[in-house]
């Protein structure tokens, strides 16, 4: 199912053919530069299934992104529901996080901003929780997308799932103030 369309993108359900490029995206060290590690194929398979299950259950989630002209899977863009658990809790929870991850060949074309803007327009009237986005303090490209979307920086924090000594533990938090 296609959930959203922009001039250049389709945001849709994941299909089995997306799994291999999804796994390849998650082992690319450039794509994972601002994460504490790369994702094993097994972790990618688990994430792939979980992401589609969330979409199936709620209609909202991290959607597969296809470039219309080439019909190529280029990553994902969407929101994920975040609820505090004993292992992972932030003061902002429960909330939604808007996020994106694209294959390297799709970088620098405005796809993240284009797709995320469509997602925000789609989800704002459908949810009653705040929308946040966060990334490593060093990830200037994603921070630039957040700012283009009109999100406002609210604070920095140490990510509870990242070793506090790891350089990626310091995160910057942005909030959607247009809700």
From TrEMBL:
<dbReference type="Pfam" id="PF13302">
    <property type="entry name" value="Acetyltransf_3"/>
</dbReference>
<feature type="domain" description="N-acetyltransferase">
    <location>
        <begin position="9"/>
        <end position="173"/>
    </location>
</feature>
<dbReference type="GO" id="GO:0016747">
    <property type="term" value="F:acyltransferase activity, transferring groups other than amino-acyl groups"/>
</dbReference>
<dbReference type="InterPro" id="IPR000182">
    <property type="entry name" value="GNAT_dom"/>
</dbReference>
<dbReference type="InterPro" id="IPR016181">
    <property type="entry name" value="Acyl_CoA_acyltransferase"/>
</dbReference>
<dbReference type="InterPro" id="IPR051531">
    <property type="entry name" value="N-acetyltransferase"/>
</dbReference>
<protein>
    <submittedName>
        <fullName>GNAT family N-acetyltransferase</fullName>
    </submittedName>
</protein>
